[in-house]
Amino acid sequence: MPDQQPLSPSQRQQRQHLRRQLRQQRRQLTAGQRRRAARRAAPALINALQHRPANHIALYLANDGELDLIPALSHLRLRRSSTYLPWLDPLRRGHLRFRLWQPHHPMQPNQYGIAEPARARRARALWALDVILLPAVAFDRAGYRMGMGGGYYDRTLADLKRRPRQPMLLAVGYDFQCVERGVLPLAPWDQPVDGIVTAGSE
User: Fold this and answer.
1) 182 labeled part of a ligand binding site
2) What is the dihedral of CA 50, 55, 59, 62, to 10 degrees?
3) Is 18 one of the annotated binding-site residues?
4) pLDDT tens-digit profile of 29-52?
């Protein structure tokens, strides 16, 4: 990833406008449109994985209209995968850790109202995951992603640079969240991903 200069005021405004616009568009999808996109996410995900191992997968629970990945877990290739959810690291403020999760595990809301595993389930080191599926508000095919603005994933993923083993990083969203290269102003803290997984809602 090339060195990025600090964002100018106009670039910050452009990011905020794009984030607001795409979040609103995402929220306006009907329940039927979300279900259709969730069904289409499985083949898109398998195609993006190609031949990479997927025994340990970190994902997210859909929030704020995000693309739901849970139906994709029923795909034959992923049925035996161990899945992990992010939770706010109490020891490193602004960072995430990933806890083992299954649908029957009890959940509780974090400070943002997002569900996390309620009990101290076993956590897996970031570098020991095979795949990390990242929610995104916007992304492009060059591998740049913009999240919700809290910076949790970017700070967490920055730690991977010092590790010889790297999980595959895939940004996930609806087709309309993929923007042309150059539309998304890049911030110095943005961490690149290895690929994208998109699904249409129509």
Assistant:
1) no
2) 80
3) yes
4) 999 999 999 999 999 999 999 889
